[in-house]
């Protein structure tokens, strides 16, 4: 296992030289120093500073970092720069980022005789399985430069799809969050003042006010019960999704949510097609590619659909693709893949599927606000109407009491 060492050495002219080197043993560091006319004084394994868990939490690898790494490696490789030299030059983000910590280790593994893909396997927290498999296939086929270029483009499209989905979901999430905060503030601070005011008069309270007062009393008196219920719901959700059947049920429910479910399905299909195209172009067999894609998708229902597709090829029944029923996999995508198989242009058709559903995600995301505005308007109007009735109706009753 490659480790990062800190060394202190003396140059031939007597000057002190400090540095770091990644190797498996101290002897390898000593050999490296001797080869560079340096006399080793101390060689110590570098100590990890700070909390490793927190470091990994705050230094998560971003998609932009992988894209930058892929583009840099592709450019240098096409320019004729050796892989080892390229790996020693490339720096991504901050000096203490996970990427920059991993790159020297990958460099040391490649220097020791491993292929790039094998060296990346020890860093699956950075490089997805699809990425590693594509690199491996590119190395075997001698098309590493093409695969790196395609991977960079695919990652850029995937990042764009994710951003579009997040952009579409941001507006309703913000509105519902503000509405929830407003409800909490009203029930916790505003309503109790009205309760004190109304209780000083012997007047009948209308039903909306009674409901609001009861809700406020429950929240202020039994807030710990609500916190317990929220904790129980979170624990139950995590327990359910930890079981295969439970995760299937939850993912199925998510994909059946109006508008949102369709957006998630289209995003997954676009991502699947683009990654499938890369793996197929790299020379991997279709079945192997589909098996890799099954593990790379987070939604278990989509995983099930891809597994069903892989089973067709495994049984040699790919000609039955159009007759096979899929719950979420779109018919258009099936037809285009079937045409690609029939005409021998699967790579082109997969790219077409990816581009088509990327545009669908873009269109739906841009119009999501317009689609949800009427629903959110009704919800907000209902909340405001309830508050208005609950607060002002008793005032009318009080006016009658005063007049009496």
Arithmetic mean of pLDDT:
79
Largest sheet at a glance? 3 strands, antiparallel
Q: Mind telling me the C-alpha Rg?
A: 30 Å
Strand order of the largest sheet: 2-1-3
Terminal residue distance: 89 Å
Oligomer: single chain
Low-confidence runs: 48-59
* Succession of helices and strands: EEHEHHHHHHHHHHHHHHH
Which range best describes the helical content: under 10%, 10-25%, 25-40%, 40-55%, 55-70% or over 70%?
over 70%
Q: Count of helices?
A: 16
For the record, the count of structural domains works out to 2
Which outline best applies? Answer: flat
Q: How many DSSP-defined strands?
A: 3
Q: What keywords describe this structure?
A:
404 residues; mainly alpha; 3-stranded antiparallel sheet; flat
Question: Can you give a write-up of this model?
Answer:
- Helix content is 73%, strand content 6%.
- Helix 3 packs antiparallel against helix 8 (144-199).
- Mean pLDDT is 79; it is low at 48-59.
- By secondary structure, it is mainly α.
- The protein folds into two domains: 3-47; 154-404, no CATH class.
Q: How are the SSEs ordered, and which strands pair?
A:
Blueprint: E1 3-10, E2 16-23, H1 26-35, E3 39-45, H2 52-58, H3 63-78, H4 83-89, H5 98-111, H6 116-120, H7 129-141, H8 144-199, H9 207-221, H10 223-241, H11 244-255, H12 260-281, H13 286-296, H14 300-314, H15 331-343, H16 346-403
Antiparallel strand pairs: 1-2, 1-3
Helix pairs in contact: 3-8, 7-8, 8-9, 8-12, 8-16, 9-16, 12-13, 12-16, 13-14, 15-16
TL;DR?
This protein has helices at 26-35, 52-58, 63-78, 83-89, 98-111, 116-120, 129-141, 144-199, 207-221, 223-241, 244-255, 260-281, 286-296, 300-314, 331-343, 346-403, and strands at 3-10, 16-23, 39-45. By secondary structure, the protein is mainly alpha-helical. α12 packs antiparallel against α13 and α15 packs antiparallel against α16.
């Amino acid at each position: 296992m490659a480790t990062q060492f800190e060394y202190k050495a003396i140059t031939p002219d007597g000057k002190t030289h400090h540095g770091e080197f990644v190797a498996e043993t101290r002897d390898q560091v000593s050999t490296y120093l001797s080869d560079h006319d340096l006399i080793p004084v101390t060689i110590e394994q570098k100590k990890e500073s700070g909390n490793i868990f927190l470091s990994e939490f705050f230094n998560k690898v971003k998609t932009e970092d992988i894209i930058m790494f892929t583009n840099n490696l592709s450019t240098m490789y096409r320019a004729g720069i050796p892989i080892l030299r390229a790996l020693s030059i490339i720096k991504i983000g901050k000096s203490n980022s996970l990427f920059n910590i991993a790159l020297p280790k990958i460099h040391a593994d490649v220097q020791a005789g491993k292929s790039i893909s094998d060296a990346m396997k020890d860093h699956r927290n950075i490089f997805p399985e699809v990425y590693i498999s594509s690199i491996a296939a590119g190395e075997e086929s001698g098309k590493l430069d093409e695969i790196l270029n395609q991977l960079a483009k695919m990652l850029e499209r995937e990042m764009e799809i994710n951003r579009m989905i997040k952009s579409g979901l941001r507006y309703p999430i913000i509105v519902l969050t503000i509405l929830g905060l407003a409800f909490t503030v009203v029930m916790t601070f505003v309503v109790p003042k009205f309760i004190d005011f109304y209780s000083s008069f012997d007047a009948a309270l209308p039903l909306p006010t009674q409901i609001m007062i009861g809700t406020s009393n429950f929240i202020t008196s039994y807030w710990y019960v609500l916190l317990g219920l929220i904790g129980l719901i979170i624990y139950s959700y995590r327990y359910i999704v930890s079981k295969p059947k439970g995760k299937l049920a939850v993912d199925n429910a998510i994909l059946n949510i109006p508008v949102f479910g369709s957006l998630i399905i289209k995003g997954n299909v676009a991502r699947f097609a683009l990654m499938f195209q890369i793996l197929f172009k790299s020379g991997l067999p279709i079945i192997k590619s589909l098996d890799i894609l099954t593990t790379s998708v987070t939604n278990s229902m989509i995983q099930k659909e891809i597994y069903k597709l892989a089973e067709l090829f495994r049984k040699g029944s790919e000609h039955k693709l159009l007759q096979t029923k899929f719950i979420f996999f779109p018919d258009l995508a099936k037809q285009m893949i079937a045409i690609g198989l029939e005409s021998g242009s699967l790579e082109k058709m997969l790219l077409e599927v990816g581009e088509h559903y990327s545009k669908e995600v873009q269109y739906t995301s841009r119009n999501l606000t317009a689609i949800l505005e009427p629903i959110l308007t009704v919800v907000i109007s209902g909340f405001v109407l309830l508050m208005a009735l609950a607060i002002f109706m008793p005032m009318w009753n009080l006016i009658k009491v005063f007049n009496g």
